[in-house]
Amino acid sequence: MAYKILKKKRLAPGLYDFLIEHTTIPLYARPGQFLIIRIDERGERIPITIAGVQENSVRIIVKCVGKSTYKLAMMKEGEHVLDVVGPLGNPSEIDCYGRVCVIGGGVGIAPLLPITKALKGASNHITAILGAATAEFLILEEEFRELSDELIITTDDGTIGKKGLVTHRLEELLNAGERFDRIWAIGPTVMMKFVSAIATRQEIPCWVSLNPIMVDGTGMCGACRVEIDGNMKFACVDGPEFDGRFVNWNELIKRQHQYKEQEKAALELFKKEAGDLSWL
Amino acid sequence: MALKKRVPMLEQSPEERIKNFSEVALGYTEELALLEANRCLQCPTHPCISGCPVEINIPAFIKAICEKDYKKGIEILKDTNNLPAICGRVCPQEKQCEAQCVLGKVKGNDSVAIGRLERFLADLDLSLEISKHRSDTENTGKVAVIGAGPAGLTVAADLARMGYEVTIFEAFHRAGGVLIYGIPEFRLPKDIVEKEVNYVISLGVKIEYNQVIGRTIPFRKIRQDFDAVFIGIGAGAPRFMGIPGSNLNNIYSASEFLTRVNLLKANEFPKYDTPVRIANRVVVIGAGNVSMDAARTARRLGAEEVLVIYRRSEAEMPARLEEYHHALQEGIIFHWLTQPVEYIGDINNNVKAMKCIKMKLGVPDESGRRRPIPIDGSEFIVETSLVIEAIGQKANSVLRTGFPGLKLNKWGYIEADPETGATNLEGVFAGGDIVTGAATVIEAMGAGKRAARAIDSYIRSLKRA
Fold this sequence. Notes:
Chain A: Residues 1-94 form the FAD-binding FR-type domain. Chain A: One of its GO terms (biological process) is pyrimidine nucleotide biosynthetic process. By secondary structure, chain A is of the alpha/beta class. Chain A has helices spanning 25-28, 67-73, 109-121, 141-147, 166-175, 189-202, 235-238, 249-256, 260-274; strands spanning 3-12, 15-21, 34-38, 46-49, 52-54, 57-63, 80-81, 83-88, 99-105, 125-132, 150-155, 162-163, 182-186, 206-209, 225-228, 231-234, 241-243. In chain A, the strands form four sheets. Chain A has a seven-stranded mixed sheet with strand order 12-11-10-9-13-14-17, with helices on both faces. Chain A has a five-stranded antiparallel sheet with strand order 5-6-2-1-7. In chain A, helix 5 runs parallel beside helix 6 (189-202). In chain B, the strands form five sheets. In chain B, strands 5-4-3-6-18 form a five-stranded parallel sheet, with helices on both faces. In chain B, helix 6 packs antiparallel against helix 9. Helices cover 35% and strands 17% of the residues of chain B. Chain B contains 19 helices and 18 strands. Chain B folds into three domains: 10-128, Orthogonal Bundle (Fumarate Reductase Iron-sulfur Protein, Chain B, domain 2); 142-236 and 394-464, FAD/NAD(P)-binding domain (3-Layer(bba) Sandwich), CATH 3.50.50; 240-391, FAD/NAD(P)-binding domain (3-Layer(bba) Sandwich). The radius of gyration of chain B is 23 Å and the shape is globular.
């Protein structure tokens, strides 16, 4: 086992772009799928959506939020993570829909990239809305500029693009008479929830990529169960993409907080041991 | 002169063991094993053998113990059973070999403790140099085995011993399947599993970890690259009761709860990164072996009070008696004839109570057990902040998408010939829980043994053609 980190690039504070060596993921991965990484012998299984593949490697973009992602971000090129399993989950349903709006928030912009590429390849007209906290945290702008017929940038503080949320920009477009056949939204759960609310009002199918707490990622444990249109689904094998109009968002958000106290305690302890992490 | 009662096995005291995850049963010393082995009548009819799904020559290995020829005893065991240290611990011997024992049928006598003697020999073997059993005749066929659980390991070991080149594809980072993620350390230490897996590897079997066939590698690719395929992926998908509130926080499937602790060592959080929740009062639903494992694990994680709720009565409980007794000794409380009907959550979506209803038993149903019927108006509330549902598994839905063309039955399990494991696809065999639904470790191993023979004759027929 053990999978080599071929490349690591700092995109923004606490935000890293990795290429991890893998022989089969590049052959079989399709947009929308994810992988599970275990960093070391004591590591937990971390699900991460795939940002792209190259000939002998898989690309992931990781934001430091908890102990495991900090640990990953601290690893260097040439070092190895212990386990990589993928691709998992169902691929995105790529087709020629017509006019598609792709919406990415924060690190969620990363998995949106291969999906957008595939949608463009299927001859869709692409409107991309990318949102970040500040200009510093906006990722993959250039890649999206090439792929999109229209690119809209928005930041919380207005340091780049328009000030505000991605949902504001979507509302503006729709109010101006723009019509979309499909929406893809990937980002923080709250962002996906509010995009889905707009999609519900406008009756637009709206794919979102859910990231509930997950353990095995193969349908074995049921940790990632989500309520979709009143039915219990497992995000790992039935998803991770679902039509956001039918997701029980409030339940999902609360389930994501299940280990909040433990996660916080583990991170505090790790920060004490690891020393100053402000360089990350 | 022989003892009427079986020689007891040493165990950790209940007060001690609820504070640790070390093995409860400590096994026999040589002295105790000899005492027990000498109880065997060496009867000519040896019905015990027919009670064993893999037909171990039981009287012969017990005789070898009596003669202190342990090497021979180990050889006899390994002749039919590649994983004896595991079987000696987790087989339901009281329903299999030991149920048939002639001595046990004599009034006032216990049957011979065959499982404990198997464990004695197997543990001895693990501490000695491992003898290889690889065949000299090279059959040079290539076989892929999907899943490194009891069925897969057995097929692989048997075929390797016949001279085949075998590769196991395992979804997790460790081999053993349910032996690793499901059965707790205190019942089956993981280093025992690891040693027996290493024995299988020593026979020439290759194990590729982190491979979810049907997802990470397409099934068609496996079929192209190998002469035959065995699917032994288990029935890993958890069942939920599906009552209102099932998605509240701190309601676990037993698979999730046990995987977090057994495979990912959540009991050592934060030294290990995977967390698990615990509560003062934990409710476990269901009364099978998995439920006992979950309840006893919860106790060890620090739960003061663990309740097991079961909709039928003690008489219908599917768990092994030994596990049930161990659970009782550890202070687990059982509520029979009780069925949860709804979970109640707090403002943060955490479970805080469950509404249950009392049941009575009606006429026997298709399982032969008396059907539980709710008693109207008997609802009551049980307060709890952690629930583990241990009501069984079902077929993983990945089968439907990941294995195109494979014929499944109406429950989603693979349709396979019970004798050979042959499926509707040429050269594809299956066995274990993914064919039968959740069963025992030894039954999965039995299916593996039969499939190994069938795969051998299939590949031989290919070569003749």
